[in-house]
Amino acid sequence: MTEGTIHDLRTPSLLLDRGILKRNLRRMAGRATELDVALRPHMKTAKCLEVAALATDGQAGGVTVSTLAEAEALAGAGYRDILYGVGITPDKLAAVAAIQAGGARVAMVLDDPETAKAVVERAAVLNGSFAFLIEIDSGQHRAGLQPDDPQVLEVAGIIDGGGNTELLGVMSHAGHSYNCASIAEIQAVAAAERDAVVAAAGAIGGRGLTCPVVSVGSTPTALHARDLTGVTEMRPGVYMFGDLYQTAIGSCGPEDIALSVMAAVVGRRPAEGRALIDAGALALSQDRGWQGPGDEVCYGVAVDIDGRPLPGRLCNTKYGLSAFR
User: Fold this and answer.
1) CATH number of the 258-324 domain
2) Which is deepest, 58, 102, 136, 271, by most CB within 10 Å?
3) What's the pTM value of the predicted model, to 2 decimals?
4) What is the DSSP string of 102-169?
């Protein structure tokens, strides 16, 4: 059987540069070593068992997921230490129990006393043991409790008092690091994230409860944190592939972007400096990229088949996705 070439691929097609991917993985593994924390890569971006194997090679083996479908797939592939990094609700515990029946442990996240009570009650009638981390708000203000909120200790006590529930520790996600305008700002966010989870863990330990896991996350803070004393693990994810937004905030360079989308030119407007391609928002992602002229949102940089940048960027205009100068 003759191997095909890139020209045989149907467009739009995702292209992954394995060499860049491996370099990015080595870089983050080195950061984890420098900061003396375990690396628990977040797989929500990759959603790929082959990438998971590369990302966990030489690491403790833990992974992070954002859906139970991801947890199920990774557990089926032999991963045994999984963090489901989204607030859990009682109706999902049966699915967690089914995954754990195969030998994996799926740690879950809580940040509300009433939900914690309902989850503990549900866990009591299911087989197996269930482990939890308490989410701490370190500044993003999307989810989690303030480190000095009395509810942190309340939730900890509810979990610890359950018949088959276990308190693993605390976690936080500094997603607001994406809004930083400088490396110095990212470093400040990383320090605040560290201080928040370490303070919460200290308060829990002060009540005589165990809190072995102190977990932080986000690619920018993982790459630029100066000191993670008191933290046990970090959970970055986007670092594997990189993207234009990470480039814009200083988390990687253009040469570190491992993913691209190959598209075919289906229409030309030479006089206007535009070309229409067969890749829309679903193919290119609707995550933030570079800002284009006016209100246009740029999703990527247009390059030729050899990866050389064209004199323009790829933006969502009123005419559709177009390369422009």
Assistant:
1) 2.40.37.20
2) 136
3) 0.90
4) TT-EEEEEE--HHHHHHHHHHHTTSSS-EEEEEEB-SS--SSSB-TT-HHHHHHHHHHHTSSSEEEEE
